[in-house]
Every structure is written in structure tokens, then in C-alpha cells.
Amino acid sequence: MAGFKLAPIDMNLFPAGFNNLNPNFMSVSVQSAQKTIQRIAPAVKKILIVPESHTRNLFYWENVKTLQTILSGAGYETRLGLLASEVQLPHDMTLPSGQNVMLGTPGASE
Fold first, then answer.
1. Residue 90's domain is classified under what CATH number?
2. Banded pLDDT at 51 (limits 50, 70, 90)
3. Domain for residue 16, yes or no?
């Protein structure tokens, strides 16, 4: 008789919903991110966001773009990257809001 059970889970380490924040409070979001990162890792200057690669949900990408905007506004060089090889980098995506998301760096796939 087993004393425990194991089950696979989808562990979302990357929170979602940044695109649902009130745009009027963007400065508060930027200040909060800056304060938190400076407290945890004061030497950080660059941040790489590695979002899930299998989604085609444009609202998920709106979330990622908003997070990138917050971190960039906090003074960090912020880029998006993927672990998957099925997307040719660099890859530019236009979102419903009209903003663009650039995955990878131009020239990175060469």
C-alpha cells in the first residue's frame, strides 16, 4: 500500500493577468517591480522572460507584453525568448491592442 500519490501538474511559475491591470496605475506597477527586484537581486540589469511557446492565445501575449513594459519601465533591459525550436527567431507578433511583441533578438537565429 502506497503512503503517497504523485500526479503531473502544470506549474505556472509565470503569473498571468498583467494585461488586466488598470493602465492608470502603470506607474505603481513599475515602482513595485523595481522595488521588489532591487530588494531580491540588486545587481540585476537585464531580464529575460521565457514565456510558454505552445500558445497561440493573443491575450496571453498581451499579458507578456504588459509584463515586459512594466519591467522595462522599471529600468531593466528586458527581452523575450523561447526554449522551443519550432518558432523561427526573431519573430514579430502584432497583438489585438496594436502593440508588437518581438521574440528573440534580430540576428539571433543566424
1. 3.40.50.11280
2. confident
3. no
